[in-house]
Amino acid sequence: xxxxxxxxxxxxxxxxxxxxxxxxxxAEQSVESATSLESAAMLHTLEKMLDEQSNPVQxxxxxxxxxxxxxxxxxxxxxxxxxxxPTEIEGYAQVCFEKLGVTLGDNWVMHTEFRNYGxxxxxxxxxxxxxxxLLELLNARGLRLTxxxxxxxxxxxxxxxxxxxxxxxxxxxxxxxxxxxxxxxxGLLGYDVEPVTSSLEQTRMRLLNRVASAYNDITxxxxxxxxxxxxxxxVAPAPACFPEVxxxxxxxxxxx
Length: 256
Prior knowledge:
By secondary structure, the chain is α/β, with parallel strands linked by helices. It is built from six helices and 13 strands.
């Protein structure tokens, strides 16, 4: 009878790799996808993974989606104590996006998050049309969307950061981009991204060199990748930029 109860299903949708993990099934279903996975193709892959379940996901089940940062837009929000109303914070986030050359209209759905009082926040936006199509797909199956987060937003909201003097760098590796989130004792310090134009290693090196020029006291590098075959952190670039750094590897479902 318990098989008929709703469950939580964790989904990852990324160029090159998509996966589905269920609360009641030990094995994770992974699907290799096109390296230039478009937003519509992501939904097609999601639908395919749901259709291929030998034990169908029951109606009323909850879905938690982590998606590629390339699907949306990310901006950091330096703390502004005088901003208290939601409309003020939203307007401030719009300005922060515009400073990055990103203009968000009504065709985007934006959310802002301040993890700790006085700390830097994060804003992320996803295409409204894509979200509506996602909800339509799930509603047709009787499934409930609990959360959908770009991976950088998921990491910002859920990753632990140390309380010591050192700073931690979280490196997020997708097939088409690498991102870093820098944490200190007070939370988020910085965010940066580098598109993959050659090899993954050269991309990481450019990004880490840039971070090292701004933050020379990184004591820990934590690594996350969509590719589970990368079972260890990329040792080559990190020590060259941060000679005495501690390296740590996160599992793909670290924030589920």
